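Lab notebook, page 48
Experiment: co-folding of the full assembly
Goal: obtain a model of how the components sit together before planning crosslinking
Operator: M.T.
Materials (sequences as entered):
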Amino acid sequence: MRHSIRGFGTSVSATLAAAAPRHVSPARLLLRRLVRRKLVLLSLLVLALVFAAAAAAPWVAPYAPQRMDILHRLAAPSALHWFGSDDFGRDVLSRCLWGARTSLTVGLLVVVIAGLAGTALGVAAGYLRRLDGVLMRVTDAMMAFPDILLAIALMAALGASAANVVIALGVVYTPRVARVARGGTLVLRELQFVEAAEALGAGGRRIMLVHLLPNLLSALLVQCTFLFAASILTEAGLSFLGAGVPPTVPTWGNMIAAAQQYMDRAQWLILAPGLCIVLTVLALQVVGDGLRDALDPKLRRIR
Amino acid sequence: MMRSYVLRRLGGMAAVMFLVATVVFVIAHVIPGDPAAVMLGPSATAADIAALRVRLGLDAPLPLQYLDFLRSVAALRLGDSVFLGQTVTAALAERAPLTLTLTLMAATLATLIGVPVGILSAVKRGSVLDQAVTAVSMAAASVPSFWIGLTLIEYLAVQWRLLPVAGYGPPDAGALTHMRYLILPAIAVGLPNMALIIRFTRTSMLDVLHEDYVRTARAKGLAPGTVIIKHAFRNARTQVLTILGLVVSGLLGGAIVTETVFGLPGVGNLVVSAVLRRDYPVIQGALLVISGIYVLVNLVIDLLYAALDPRVRY
Amino acid sequence: MSLLQVRELRTEFQLEDAVARAVDGVSFDVARGETLAVVGESGSGKSVAALSIMRLVPPPGGTTGGEVLLAGRNLLSLREREMRRVRGAEIGMIFQEPMSCLNPLLTVGEQVAETVRLHRGLGRSAAWRHAEEMLARVNIPEPRRRAADYPHHLSGGMRQRVMIAIALACSPPLLIADEPTTALDVTIQAQILELMRALQSELGMGMLFITHDLGVVAQVADRVAVMYAGRVVEQGTVGEVFARPLHPYTRALLRAIPRAGERRDPARLLPAIPGQVPSAAALPPGCAFAPRCALATAQCRAAVPPEEAAGPGRLVRCIRWREA
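Observation: model returned without errors.
Model output:
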């Protein structure tokens, strides 16, 4: 009696797998998991607020960002100026709101550009072996520079403006997205549904668009969330150094730069924009982590 | 066998540096705009600009400029600074030790605290300690290093007078004095990177702790400490090493910004002022040197990786 | 007296929205020198039961009830530090996946020597010599050379021999083997089983052998316990259970095995058991096999059937076992 009953390997996971929910769609599962983590929910709320405030700045800001209130220069936070005022008597809260517009717009555009370009290059590199070697060496070279150094150098060549910051950061971050896309493509390429599609005569482009891309979306989504956070930080750094958005347009970074000399007299000038950065970036990171955990293919999560 | 591996890696490094040099060239020369005009400013005459172009070799066809550039880089001739009255090499050599010391101090801080905390966090997954560590390290990774720098200056230096505010104690004033000035900057640079190290170490350890051989180790009755260090961490450490390689990039970048905040005369400060003044030779030189450091560090890490893991084929 | 006595063992997993009762009141004995096979399909809880005995169930799981008596001592009531002295020294355990059960960064010899250094207090060189001896005993050719090799230099069969060497290095009275041959080629499987039987009689060990393969049970075990959905549904000697299975599940399992030499209509499919194993998080209130059982009645579905004695050492968890 040497015949075995074909079974799967036994292990703890087999027991857990047998206990899995049977008929829940992946989208609903994702939503359920995201909502369950209160911290993620809170961060999404914070992000929604920040975005809303930035979008509505022209209407919500109590004062125009350039409006100078000479009588109340360097005023501490009060009923008149909730976040205080700077050395020109400009309202810090309003400038933070307008700064949000700039910083978030730059971040969003960078994510879109780097996301699209990086994905295109990465998928192409992963799928078309001829491109892979060249593209990987080039991304290696570009990733040999610290983000901010490459960004600074590009800004030196391009000149300081918000649009150029977008271009510079787009160039800086495209390789990173390309890496993730390529990695995912390499894994997916070996899976059998791609072989099946090829056997059915699907061409390269069709395979890339219809089969590979949708499966990469979750990893890319997570990566782009973190990318958004990184661009906000790097743009702040650039503007702080004076190589980013010029001080005529307020961003959180250049507000902190201008506030340096008044550090001992007016801490709120540094605190307010700094907290804005920290809050937004932290919220983005929590959401990114939450997304990554929620998109984990393991069936049942440990509480 | 090890030697051919090392040689292959060095070859790879050379290839990357070649591409790096190309990228640097592209940034400086292919971007629209006339560097000569920008350098001389709006008041320059056409004749002056033309003369500077000839002096800088900008009138030659692009491919020739490219080859010339590669040749000088290979010979480590990085040109002359437009504003400093020094060769780029001399300027960089003067300032590099400070930046390297700062980066090293920050790296030591980040690793010595970050790795053990990451391990502990993974072992006690889900506990209050783990949650607190995760929260704090996420927050620390969200703070721009210049903000940390400014806050540290404001409170630790100005208000509580624990450490010097800014400025610089040169190495000949004694190692201790020299380092005192670098403590706050090292913390500012190290903190966000420590957060990264904690998170990645934790993730690597969590992966490894679920491996079958850890279960085997426990089934032998080994003490928890032995299981964690001799079996789990030993397998996670190569991943942690890889992360350290990436973190070097963040440390170097952080150093650049922090030197400005603290007024330290290092390479970072040099680069920033060069950018503001469009001192292209300096910018190019700094790009090459800093990326060179990064590539070298990663090469060393690759070799360590091979030495530590017997499965890597030479 | 039995070497190992498991009584009403219960182990649960705390999941996101439910509790999975992986082991739900399991009892069996292993005597010295005897091999008890625990048989079941994947998800039946047999591996979890073995891990529960060693107290190695990973979180979010935990043993919530029952007793595990090893030579009279209840392992579940020991302090963790005391339990660590039991592991490796009084119970050896080998697992299913030899490819991943060994630390890739330590030599094979070191991994065997480690156990002996820990439990017997031997010094480095004495422990290393002992490791070489153990490798020889598990029939690894050129043991002295092999001891300095890393796991990735060895094939699956060799690695499993190393695992056996590690488990038996301190001559424990009990060996737990969790599907040790499932991941191996059939020919290697035979060799490993042969080796285990030889070592068992040499050392006079009791062996708890977990498997899903009835063929292996026949080769290696004296007694067998059949598990389904976290409970033992039938127990007895291998001869008895195979010749006269009493529980409908056991009967169905044995029916589904094609026999060499039997004449079968090629158009007819092998008899399969309709339905699916219930989820450990959603066990039915009565007999867990009832939904798939042709003999199920309302009483079966109402309450979990108790274990009934059907002869000396023969147990069945079914109220209708007499109706063959």
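Interpretation: Chain B is about 80% helix and 0% strand.
Next step: discuss with group before ordering constructs.
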